[in-house]
Amino acid sequence: MGGGWNHNTHHHRVVLDAVPAGARTALDVGTGDGLLAADLRDRVPRVTAIDLDAAVLARARRTRPDVDWVAGDVLTHPLPPASFDIVASIATVHHLPDLGAALRRLAELTAPGGVLVVIGCADSAGPADLAMDVVGAVQHRVLARTRGFWQHSAPVVMAFPHTYAEVRHIATATLPGVRWRRWPLFRYSLTWSAPA
């Protein structure tokens, strides 16, 4: 399938560590090259991966036919509600028109007792964000040099619709009990457990 290290694949571990014990189904939202879907499939028997880019999905399908590849928009595609034990999205929600609506949709797809994990991008604002960005810049240089940097097929976005603080505010208002974390490599994570 190709791929390698970058800021998104670096955070696969956050998703994989959140997979509930006994998970049978997973959804990878905005799968792109399908690397997270492939990692999930190594742990979860049934993985669905959705993305708008049919050409990228066709390439992924050739290398991992054991994943259900779906060309479509997660906001409107008729995915079965409350049916995925793990719903994951890496660097996708900032492409969607309304963050709150996107998080509600992903929560609706999460099975009772399941887990939703969003790894996202946002704009920095304030000294704490800027300090984290400095740490991230150093971490990027070290890891890119030691692991080699791979550019994924998704469009590169340089300006994001929300700051980290705004994302945190929207997420806590939308997903009661969500756990928020800011990561150095220009990412945040939201982890939410659906009520059993």
Account of the 3D structure:
- With 196 residues, this protein is of the alpha/beta class.
- It has one domain (9-122, 155-193): Rossmann fold, CATH 3.40.50.
- It is built from six helices and seven strands.
- A seven-stranded mixed β-sheet has the order 3-2-1-4-5-7-6, sandwiched between helices.
- Strand 2, helix 3 and strand 3 (68-71) form a beta-alpha-beta unit.
- Helix 4 crosses helix 6.
- It is globular.
- 34% of the residues are buried.
Key structural traits:
single chain; 196 residues; alpha/beta; Rossmann fold; 7-stranded mixed sheet; 6 helices; 7 strands; globular
Number of beta strands: 7
Shape: globular
CATH superfamily, by name, is Vaccinia Virus protein VP39
CATH fold descriptor: Rossmann fold
Count, helices: 6
Radius of gyration: 16 Å
C-alpha end-to-end distance? 36 Å
Write the element-wise H/E pattern from the N-terminal end onward.
HEHEHEEHEHHEE
> Oligomerization state of this entry?
single chain
CATH architecture, by name, is: 3-Layer(aba) Sandwich
Structural class: alpha/beta
**What is the CATH domain class?**
Alpha Beta
Q: How many structural domains does the protein architecture include?
A: 1
The largest sheet, given as strand count, sense and whether it forms a barrel, is:
7 strands, mixed
Question: Could you tell me the strand content as a percent range?
Answer: 15-25%
Low-confidence stretches: none
Strand order of the largest sheet: 3-2-1-4-5-7-6
Arithmetic mean pLDDT: 89
Helix content: 25-40%
